[in-house]
Structure formats: structure tokens, C-alpha cells
Amino acid sequence: MTDSERETFIADCGRRINEAYSKGDRQLARGLVDMRTQAIKGRSPTQVAAMERDYFSEEGERARLAARTGGALNA
After folding, report:
1. Which helix (H) or strand (E) holds 60?
2. H/E run at residue 51
3. Taking the CA of residue 57 as centre, how many other CA atoms within 13 Å lie in the half-sphere pointing to its CB?
């Protein structure tokens, strides 16, 4: 599975988990949570590094915005 396919699978599991819970199917939801957890654990080191770069870049931008606006994050 490619990184892109894995991320699509993880997102799809999330949607299906929500659907299962909304229908009251806790057993299906739990199975999907387990599948999603395994997919997350199977992320490649390259994918994890890319996600960390994106996260810290976004957090840095939020911090810079907060500094410019006196802490107002929604300015």
C-alpha cells in the first residue's frame, strides 16, 4: 500500500467508524477502530516525517499569527 492509499484508507475508516456508531453498531465500529489503528501504526517513516513537517509548520504559523495579533488566534 502506498502512503497515499494508506492515508485514504485511514480517512475512510474514520468515516465508517462514525457511521457505525451513528447506527448503533458498536461491534463494527470497534473493528474499524482496530483496522485504522493498525494502518496508522503501519505508516512509513517517510510519511510520518512529512506529516510532522506539515504539523509543525502549521503550528509555527499559528504561533506567529498569535504573536502579531496579541494572542487572538481567530484574527
Report:
1. helix 45-68
2. helix 45-68
3. 6
| Burial tier of 13 (Cβ tally within 10 Å: 0-12, 13-18, 19+) | buried
Burial class (CB in 10 A: 0-12, 13-18, 19+), 24: exposed
- Predicted confidence at residue 74, as pLDDT, reads 57
Alpha-carbon distance of 10 to 48, in angstroms, equals 14
Q: Give one DSSP letter per residue of 7-27, joined into a string.
A: HHHHHHHHHHHHHHHHTT-HH
Q: Is the pTM of this model over 0.70?
A: yes
